[in-house]
Amino acid sequence: MKDYGIVIIGAGMAGFGAAYRLSQAGVRPSIFDERARVGGHTSTYRFDDGFIFDDGPHISFTEDNRFQELLAESVGQEFERVNAYVNNYWRGHWIKHPAQANLYGLPSELIIKCVKELVETNAKGPPLSIGNYQDWLVASYGPTFANTFPGEYTKKYHTTEAQNLTTDWLGPRLYRGDLEVVLRGALEPDTPSLHYIDKFRYPTKGGFVSYLNKFVPLADQHFGHRAVEIDAKEKTVRFESGETIAFKHLITSAPLPRLLPIIKDAPRAVVEAAVKLAVTKTVIVNIGLRRPDIGRAQWTYFYDADICFARLSFPHLLSPNTVPPGCGSIQAEIYFSDKYKPLTVAPEALIEPVIQDLRKCGLVKDDDEIAHKSAWVTSGNVIFDQDRPVSLPKVHAYLSELGIRYCGRYGDWGYMWTDESFFSGERAAQNLLDHLA
């Protein structure tokens, strides 16, 4: 049995964040991943027809200068600088994002209700208590806007009702709705950008995974290795292939609900806590068209229950090198979860429903030539439901007791962007280095 020293499970941003920090200390780890490619959740798929699609929409909008430079070096300073434009679709209306500050063009009665209730909520002052996300939405916007827009989107994106969610994931993601700004957005078609992402960067060539170019050589890599048992006492990992390896130290970004059940002799209560942690599954459906003039938004949110996708992104607007010349591309996200909305069909079965709904909202025309169709299922977002704050501390405490360092979106079990995942990996590696000092 080979001893690999420091083993990292997960070849995504968090795993390579850990590898980068270890390399700075002169340590070379070994990375194992169940996928056949580098990148983890930030993988990129390149197709023979010339289309490139990431494993879900990924951009870099970090304001951390150090990380900006690391990523720029990773792609040889070849990246696109893009000014973000984001919009929404609701019942045939296209409005700028955030919707609460861009009500212009919606039905008059809806605008009146939304603005009137916002005035009333402002007059009431802060609520005495907020028990869940639904309470927060109503207290922030009033019931009409809350239930018509973010409430509906929550069911599509998080796969459960807003009342089942906590509020500790919000951060800057939702604009609260200053009354003057809302009024101006209801009366005028052109408004200043209020989205928390104003500009972003994206690799010119190779898709988002190219941002890992600098970090890939820092670790020995082993792909197609799905861990099925971790023996923390004997310090071994057994893979689905039957191969078993030894380690001295383990860092993992594997999803906690899958990690804890494979830890040998893990207490039943801890495993049950891990299984209660909820995460979405995302069916990614990719469509390529023989024209690039699909729209100007890099991504769009959809609120209608009768449209299957929650969000669209348009890779050809991130870099023209993601499509063949003269083409455009659309990536649709449809969300499921084992806990709230199980996926019961093959990903490919959702390609035609996506095309139908793209036609319904006018993004795909009857005479369009569809040059590419593909679909797969991938990990989605942590669901911040009411079980998370109770279960997560138990799981993390047990892993710390075993000396297993965890990191990334699915290790920290948080709502993490790319830079945050990388930094999480660095912190896990630093924790190990401090232990070894």
CATH superfamily of the largest domain: FAD/NAD(P)-binding domain
Fraction in helix: 25-40%
Category by helix and strand content: alpha/beta
Q: Could you name the CATH class of the largest domain?
A: Alpha Beta
Compute the number of helices.
Answer: 13
Would you identify the regions where 5 or more consecutive residues have pLDDT less than 50? Answer: none
Tell me the strand order in the biggest sheet. Answer: 7-6-15-16-17-14-18
Mean pLDDT: 95
Rg on CA atoms, Å: 23 Å
Structural domain count = 3
Distance separating the two termini? 27 Å
The CATH topology of the largest domain, please? FAD/NAD(P)-binding domain
Protein architecture, described:
It is a single chain. The chain is α/β, with parallel strands linked by helices and 437 residues long. It contains 13 helices and 19 strands. It has helices at 13-24, 65-74, 108-124, 133-141, 143-148, 150-157, 179-187, 256-259, 268-276, 351-360, 388-402, 408-413, 418-436, and strands spanning 6-9, 30-33, 44-46, 52-54, 79-83, 86-90, 93-96, 199-203, 220-223, 227-231, 236-239, 244-246, 249-252, 278-289, 299-302, 311-313, 328-337, 370-383, 404-406. The protein has a seven-stranded mixed β-sheet. Strands 9-2-1-13-19 form a five-stranded parallel β-sheet. Strands 10-11-12 form a three-stranded antiparallel β-sheet, with no helix packed on it. Strand 11 and strand 12 form a beta hairpin. It is globular and about 70 Å long. The mean pLDDT is 95.
